[in-house]
C-alpha cells in the first residue's frame, strides 16, 4: 500500500470508530494548563527551607511518603500538599522547628494556590474547533475550589458544558460520570496526560482515550506498565493534533 | 374557620404549590448528619492546647478571623480548618511554637476527618418515603473527598441520584445546579439548616425551601436577617415533618 493509501485507511477507520462520540472529556492539570511544574517548584523551595536539617536528596522521598500516607484522608490538591509539607517539616525538625519555617511553608502553599494560569499551546484552538460538534467537559481530580478557580482564571470555562471534579479517577468514578452524563461507553472519549488517571480506567470501561504526554509527571501518576494495545487508544505528541482526529 | 378546616386549607394549598417539584435537594452537614458539634469539639481541644499562650475567651475569635481571611483561597472543610488552626497557633506562639503542638493540631484535623457519622433522627424514614416520588440529591459545601467519605459512611448514598459539592452555595451556583439538573426553579425544593446557604439563595432564584433549624450553627452561617416572608418557604422543627409536606 502506498503511504497515501495508509493515511486514507486510517482516516476512514477513525471516522467509523469515533462516529458515536458525544462527549469529549478533558483532563485539566498538565493537559489544558501547566500544573506539575508549579508543584515541583514549590517542592524545590520547601527542600531549600529544610536543606540544613536533612540531606536534600532524601527530602523529596520523605515528602512523597507523607503525601501517600495522607492520600486516603486528604485526597489531592494544594491544601493536602501544604498539610503534608508541614507534617514532613515537623517530623524532620522535631522540637527545634521554628514558627517562621511553618509560616514560610503556609505561604508556599498559598502562593501555589494563587498562581496565574498558563495555558498549554493549542488548547484554545482545539476547544473552539470541537465545541458545537461535541459536549465538552472537564474531568479532573484535585481540590474543588482550587480547580474551579483555575478554570475561571483560564478563561476557558465558556467552552465546557460542565466540570466534573472527582475524588479519584478510577473505573467506578468514570462509570458514575457516564451514568450522570446519560451516555454509553462508546459515546465518550477522554483526553489527558496521565496514563494512570486519564487513559487506563477509561479504556477499561470501554470508552476511548487520547494520550497527550506531558514532559513532567508526578511520581504517583506513573504506572510503569506498558502502553495498552487497543485501537481505542491514540497517542499524540501535542493537543493540537486532536483536531485531526475528532 | 374550625381548626380542621385550616388543616385542609393548608393541605390543599401545599398540594397546589408543590405539584411541580421534581428534585428535592438536601443539605448534608447538620441536616442529614451531625457536623458542627464535631467542629466545635475540635475547636475546644485546640483552645485547650493554646490556653496558656492566650486568653482562651479570645481564641475562638482569633481562629475565626484566620478562617475568614483564608476562605477565598481555601474554601470550606476540614483541611481548610486544620490549616487555619496551624496558622493561628503560629501567629499566637511565634518563634516559641513547639513541634509537638503542630503535631497535635494536625492530629486534631485528621480525627475530625475520620469521625464516624451520626445520622440525625428521622432522616432515613424521610429519604425512604420521598425516594421514588422525587429525584433526591445532596447539595453541599465543603471538601470534595471529605463530603464523599461522609456520604459513604452514612449508608445513605443509595437514596441519592447524585451528590453536588459546591464551592459556595450562592444564587449563581444554585442556578448552575438547576441548569445541570435540567429543571425549572419551581421544580426544585431545598431542605437544610442554614438560612444563609440553603434557604435565602434558593428562594432568590424562585425555588422552594424547607428550613430545618439545628441547635448549633457556625457563626459564618448566621445572617442576622429576619426570616423572609414568602409562601415558598416552610419551617419545620424536625426533618421527619417533611413527609407531611412533600
Structure description:
Two copies of one chain form a homodimer. By secondary structure, the first copy, chain A, is α/β, with parallel strands linked by helices. Chain A folds into two domains: 3-34 and 117-244, Rossmann fold; 37-113, Putative phosphatase, domain 2 (DNA polymerase, domain 1, Orthogonal Bundle). Chain A has a six-stranded parallel beta sheet with strand order 3-2-1-4-5-6, sandwiched between helices. The first copy, chain A, contains nine helices and six strands; from the N terminus they run H-E-H-H-H-H-H-E-H-E-H-E-H-E-E. The relative contact order of chain A is 0.16. The radius of gyration of chain A is 20 Å and the shape is elongated. The interface between A and B is medium-sized, with 34 and 34 residues.
Strand content of chain A: 5-15%
Q: Tell me which oligomeric state these chains represent.
A: homodimer
The CATH topology label of the largest domain in chain A is: Rossmann fold
- How would the global form of chain A be characterised? elongated
**Strand count of chain A:** 6
Main β-sheet, spatial strand arrangement of chain A: 3-2-1-4-5-6
Instruction: Provide a count of the helices of chain A.
Output: 9
Give average pLDDT of chain A, whole number: 91
Separation of the first and last Cα atoms of chain A: 25 Å
Features:
Rossmann fold; 9 helices; elongated; 6-stranded parallel beta sheet; 48% helix; alpha/beta; 246 residues; homodimer; DNA polymerase, domain 1
What's this entry about, in short?
The structure is a homodimer of 246-residue chains. The first copy, chain A, is α/β, with parallel strands linked by helices.
Amino acid at each position: 500500500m502506498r503511504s497515501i493509501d495508509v493515511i486514507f485507511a486510517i482516516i476512514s477507520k477513525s471516522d467509523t470508530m469515533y462516529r458515536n462520540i458525544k462527549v469529549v472529556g478533558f483532563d485539566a492539570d498538565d493537559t489544558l494548563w501547566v500544573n506539575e511544574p508549579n508543584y515541583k517548584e514549590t517542592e524545590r523551595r520547601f527542600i531549600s527551607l529544610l536543606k540544613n536539617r536533612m540531606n536534600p536528596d532524601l527530602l523529596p522521598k520523605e515528602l512523597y511518603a507523607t503525601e501517600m500516607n495522607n492520600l486516603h484522608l486528604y485526597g489531592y490538591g494544594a491544601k493536602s500538599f501544604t498539610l503534608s509539607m508541614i507534617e514532613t517539616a515537623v517530623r524532620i525538625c522535631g522540637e527545634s522547628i521554628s514558627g517562621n519555617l511553618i509560616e514560610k511553608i503556609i505561604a508556599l502553599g498559598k502562593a501555589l494556590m494563587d498562581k496565574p494560569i498558563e495555558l498549554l499551546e493549542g488548547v484554545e484552538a482545539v476547544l473552539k474547533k470541537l465545541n458545537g460538534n461535541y459536549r465538552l467537559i472537564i474531568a479532573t481530580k484535585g481540590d474543588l475550589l482550587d480547580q474551579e478557580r483555575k478554570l475561571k482564571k483560564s478563561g476557558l470555562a465558556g467552552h465546557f458544558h460542565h466540570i466534573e471534579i472527582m475524588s479519584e479517577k478510577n473505573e467506578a468514578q468514570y462509570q458514575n460520570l457516564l451514568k450522570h452524563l446519560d451516555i454509553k461507553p462508546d459515546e465518550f472519549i477522554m483526553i489527558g496526560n496521565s496514563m494512570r488517571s486519564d487513559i487506563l480506567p477509561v479504556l477499561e470501561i470501554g470508552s476511548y482515550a487520547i494520550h497527550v504526554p506531558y514532559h513532567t509527571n508526578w511520581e504517583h501518576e506513573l504506572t510503569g506498565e506498558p502502553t495498552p494495545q487497543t485501537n481505542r487508544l491514540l497517542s499524540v505528541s501535542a493537543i493540537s493534533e486532536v483536531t485531526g482526529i475528532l
